[in-house]
Amino acid sequence: MRCTSCNYALWNMADRTCPECGEIFQPSQFTFAPGRVRFSCPHCDEVYYGTSERGHLQPAEFECVGCGQRIAMDDMLLSPGDGVREQDTTPGSMPWLQRQHRGVLMALFQTIGMALVRPRRLMSGVPADASVGESLVFGVITTVAVYLVGGIVPLAMWIMGFMGPGGMGGWGMAVFFGYYILFGAVTTVSVLLIWPMVAHLALRITGGTEQGLDRTIQAIGYSAGANVISAVPCFGMYIGWLWWLVSATVMVQTAHRVSPGRAALSVLAAPLLAIVTVIVVINISVFAATTGGAFGGGWNPQQQNTMTLAGAIVNYGWQNAGNGPEHAVELTLSGNIGPWTFAGATPAPSPFLQPGTKTTESDLPVGTGSLADFVKMSRSARLGEIKTTLDAQPAGRVAHRFGDFVFTHHGVDLSTQDPSLWVVVMLPDPDVNGPPAAVDPVYIGYASYQVHEITYGAMAQELATQNQYRTGLGMPPLPDPVTVTHGTPAFAPATGSPSQ
Ligand SMILES: [Zn+2]
Ligand SMILES: [Zn+2]
Fold it and tell me: CA-to-CA distance for 310 and 55, rounded, in angstroms?
């Protein structure tokens, strides 16, 4: 129990005025560790101990069992209990809030030290009505300090690397430092404001809290002291964040008196969301870059089946020494064609049928029946049908049709992922849909998984370019995919090696 204005020890005094500075006080203003402080009757010295949450007497006013006089808590003489050190009479200790007495630097280092090794006691020392602003000031100071100190070694190496001949000029350095400072500011604000908000929301969702958002901001703001480990060169960055997470969890748990599990969940919510967001953003960019982006066009859902099938062919090649399947129906076994299921309960559209065409599963011959029969069969029955299909395939094909797709991977070494070689072309089955119009879209899938959209009117020119490339690789030319039907696969011209 220290004077709030001069830090003078106020034990064992009947007078309610600080002898040092004249400040008036009442014991009930202070919070004590329950059972650690001795309250003595001012009339008969009978001793009582405070058992309330704030270490106060319960009830606050009563008749003394020693002398029978009516006494109140604020009338009594207070002293640390037997064998209790003065610093243990408070439930916590919060050096930062006593920086006027301790000195700002000392208070800063002591608070950092407690955030590292005694986070529970540190948070217990933050009064419920303490200012949020002070915790944010502390959080900003420590976070910025860690960022500057931790960045000095890598930054110095960067600068030395760019100062040499042909290095970055003064203007480049200014831009670089601008980004460094901007990044630091954004990170600091996110960590000290957004993190506690997400954590508090998680606490609300998982069962609510007695205390408000202020308390969560204080817990995470003061826990930032534990992040100083991150500033230690070399190994600091690997354990600093972990130490911080543990301290923040303990402090949120102390602040809200919730279970360790709920505290951990709430503290981890924001970091996990951030990681998921980064992964999603990276995947979307990679996806956009590998599909159409490389050809200057945007991705559209119509390209999906072509990309799925091109990917399935290339994956099949990886599993089979660079060779693609003899027939596309084999792809149904390789597990690479996505959400299409054989269950039949939810009729997901087959990837061999392009959305918007008249082609149905009954139009695709498989074994002794059609794909419509095939999807309803057991796995072993399907294996039998695939064998029947493969046995019926003539040798020497360069392309075959399955549904709305013409497969052109025969003879292609799929292990090279050649971005110029066609492996599959989406051109609706002419037996069902009739011949395409010049403006109809055609999707070409490459051995590099990429998909290129053209119109059928551009087919002759695209095909000539493709066949020139194939000739350069010693491969036979492809015919117009519209001429490739289920009944008439394409063969290499008979001039070369004999083929069926
Ligand atoms: Zn005083
Ligand atoms: Zn008494």
Answer: 72
Kindly provide the b/e burial profile for residues 131-158, where b requires at least 16 CB atoms within 10 angstroms of the residue's own CB: ebebbbebbbbbbebbbeebeeeeeeee
| In-domain check, residue 446 | yes
Would you say 221 and 196 are in contact if contact means Cβ atoms under 8 Å apart?
yes
| Nearest listed ligand to the Cα of residue 77 | 2
Omega of the bond prior to 59 within 30 degrees of 0, cis?
yes
Which residues, by Cβ under 5 Å, contact ligand 2, an ion? 41, 43-44, 46, 64, 66-67
How far is 252 from 235, CA to CA, in rounded Å?
27
Domain span holding position 181: 107-287
Residues 401 and 427 in one domain: yes
Q: Based on the number of CB atoms within 10 Å of its own CB, is 14 exposed (0-12), middle (13-18) or buried (19 or more)?
A: exposed
Least confident of 175-179, 186-190, 453-457: 175-179
Check pLDDT > 50 for residue 165.
no
Asked whether residue 63 is assigned to any structural domain, the reply reads yes
Ligand 1: distance of its center to the CA of 18 in Å? 5
State how many domains the chain has.
3
CA of 223 to the centre of ligand 1 (A): 30
Sole residue written with tokens 């799929």 = 414
Calpha distance 343→377 (Å, rounded): 9
* 291 — pLDDT class (breaks 50, 70, 90): low
Q: What is the DSSP letter of 151?
A: H
